[in-house]
Every structure is written in C-alpha cells, then in structure tokens.
C-alpha cells in the first residue's frame, strides 16, 4: 500500500471518529444512549459522515458511480446490519484500488 | 411517462454504472449475502444466550482475557465482574464497562464479508475468516487490557486512546489482513496442489 493511501485512510478514520466522538459526547451530556433522542444531531452527524466517505473516495480518484454504490453498501451495512460504516467504505475502497493496481 | 420507463431511466443513468460492472456487482452481492448469513447467525447466538439469561461467551472471554492482561501489566487490585448486560474490569472507581458491542464481532463480520465478497464461498475463504476473527479478537483483548491500564494511570490519554488510537489501529490491522489475503491464497493453493 502506498504511503499516500495509508495517510488518506488514517485521515479519513480520524475525522470520522471525531464526528462520531462528538455525537457520543452529546449523548453523554444528555444522559442517554439512544441516538433517536437526538434526531437533528444524528442527522447532521450521519450526513457529515456520508459526505466524508464520499470525499475520501473522490480523493482516491474513484468514479462517481462507484462512490454512489459504495455509499449505498456502507449505509446498508450500518442501518440494516448495525455494522461499522467506515469499514464498509474501506472495503469498497480497497477492492476498487486493488483491482486497478492503484493501492 | 410510465413508472417502468422512469425506473429504466434511473437504472440507465450514469450514477448506476457501477452496478453494470459484473465483477463489482458480484462483489457487492457476495458482501451483502455474507453479511446477511453472519448477522442471522450472530443474532441467533445473542438470542440463545439471552434465553439462558447469561452474558454471551465471546464478550465474557474477551473481558476475562483483558482482565488477565491488565493484571499481567501490573494493575494492582484489578477487579473483574460480569452481569447479563456486560462486564466491569479495573480498579474500584475507575472500572471499564465491556458491553456486547465491544466484543469486536461486528467488525469481524464486515472483515469476513470482504473476504467472501472477493473470493466467494470457498473453504480457503473460511480459513481466512477464522484466522481474521482470531486476530481481531486478539487485538480486542490487547485494546481493552491497555485501556484498563490507562484508566488506572488516569489523565486524558485514556480518552485519546479509546477514541482514536485503538480504533485507527484496529481498522489498519484489518487492512493489513486484506493486504495479506493474496499471499494466504497462494499458500493455501500451493498446499492443496
């Protein structure tokens, strides 16, 4: 894996975790563990994380249709299966770059 | 315009071009099918342990081993207690709560889905999935053990580690496993030949 990709991956994860951390802090301050009690904050944080994933894929010069497909797959992973969103984004990113020998 | 024509136009739009790529489509379908199968198995596993009014075995073992690691790293008076909703590890007043969500299995499911997504449902993939899950669990024990130590030491470093360092490291460890995949494939292929 090239250094550029490794750094991009780390930066993506750090920003994603910062957004998630802020949401977690809001839950803690409101003394709850239920995201649905903070719908606006949840919406903003989710939108930011989705946009961040798209920017990360775009930065890796992945075409728009693949960015769209990867985002859908990551959202399915998160919403339907409660899996980690960035892991699904990284899975698509890894698959696409590996296939094109750009990793 | 009929709904069929509208639907066709949406499907034909550039945004959906990735789904016309048969390799990528196969990857996505296998990825999702694996997620479905493993999630059903995992939910069934959680349901069956809940019926027995017990904490699930994986969370218990991860907590127990993390406690052993923290003790080995020199945390004095490190306590360990488990209830149905999770385990508590650490020194009195500075305990860490290990919940079912901390057992690393959801991360392992997505890791496995990538392996199946790329290679399909083969026995070689299954071996890699098992090896990967063991590596992820090993890392998880290491993470929780170190967090107990950091919590005992005190200060803001604990929050930095729990929020960034271990999360980034565990994701990078999975990327490393994915990077090693072609080599593992080669080794297993040679062994079979």
Can you walk me through this structure?
Chain A is built from four helices and no strands. By secondary structure, chain A is mainly α. Chain A has one domain (about 5-100). In chain A, α1 (about 5-30) runs antiparallel to α2 (about 40-60). Chain A is elongated, with a radius of gyration of 15 Å. Chain B has a domain at about 20-55 and about 105-190. The radius of gyration of chain B is 21 Å and the shape is elongated. Chain B is built from six helices and three strands; from the N terminus they run αααβββααα. Chain B is mainly alpha-helical. In chain B, a hairpin with a 2-residue loop joins β1 (about 80-85) and β2. The interface of A and B includes residues 65, 68, 69 and 99 of A.
For the structure shown, list the relevant keywords.
heterodimer, A: mainly alpha, B: 193 residues, mainly alpha, 3-stranded antiparallel sheet
Give a short overview.
With 103 residues, chain A is an all-alpha fold.
Oligomer: heterodimer
Question: Mean of residue pLDDT of chain B?
Answer: 88
Overall pLDDT level of chain A: 90
Give the low-confidence spans of chain B. Answer: none
Write the element-wise H/E pattern of chain B from the N-terminal end onward.
Answer: HHHEEEHHH
Span of the ends, CA to CA of chain A:
5 Å
Number of domains of chain A: 1
Strand content of chain B: 5-15%
| Relative helix content of chain A | over 70%
- How many distinct helices of chain A? 4
Order of helices and strands of chain A: HHHH
Unreliable stretches covering 5 or more consecutive residues of chain A: none
Total strand count of chain A, please? 0
Largest interchain contact: A-B, 31 and 34 residues
The biggest beta sheet of chain B is recorded as: 3 strands, antiparallel
Structural category of chain A is mainly alpha
Distance from N terminus to C terminus of chain B (CA atoms, Å) equals 58 Å
Structural class of chain B: mainly alpha
Q: How many beta strands in the DSSP annotation of chain B?
A: 3
Beta-strand percent range of chain A: under 5%
